[in-house]
Amino acid sequence: MNRCRVLVVDDHKHAQEAICDILSLDASFEVIGVVSDGAEAISFTEQWMPDLILMDIRMSGMGGLEATRLSAEKPGPVDLDRISEGHRQRGSAA
After folding, report:
1. Which of 12, 56, 64, 84 is least surrounded, with the fewest CB atoms within 10 Å of its CB?
2. Where are the beta strands (DSSP E) in 10-63?
3. Could you give the 3-state DSSP secondary structure of residue 86?
4. DSSP state, residue 63
5. What is the mean pLDDT of the chain?
């Protein structure tokens, strides 16, 4: 079975843990990384190419919107889910 390789991006430790706990309940997901800002997310993505990125929009340092914009400008198909305070937006950065 091919598992979906997930990067979790959030600057709150409790949110990181909650997302990872939820994903661990489904064997089709594998969390390959957890980072706390957009710049780290871009760097991690360039090296590890996750299948899915779950990213908070509002973070200290580089936020999720800026990281999403910069990631979308780079080559490679990456799904980006941006999560913030109950709002969810989905887009493809292909």
Report:
1. 12
2. 29-35, 52-56
3. coil
4. -
5. 85
Q: How many residues in the chain?
A: 94
Q: Residue ranges per domain, the chain?
A: 4-93
- Tell me, what amino acid is at 49? M
Q: Minimum mean pLDDT among 4-13, 21-30, 34-43, 57-66: which range?
A: 57-66
Superfamily of 4-93 according to CATH: Response regulator (3.40.50.2300)
Strand order in 52-56's β-sheet?
29-35, 4-9, 52-56, 78-84, 87-93
**Given the structure tokens 């941006």, which residue do they identify?**
82
36-69 pLDDT, tens digit per residue, is 999 999 999 989 999 888 999 899 999 998 998 8
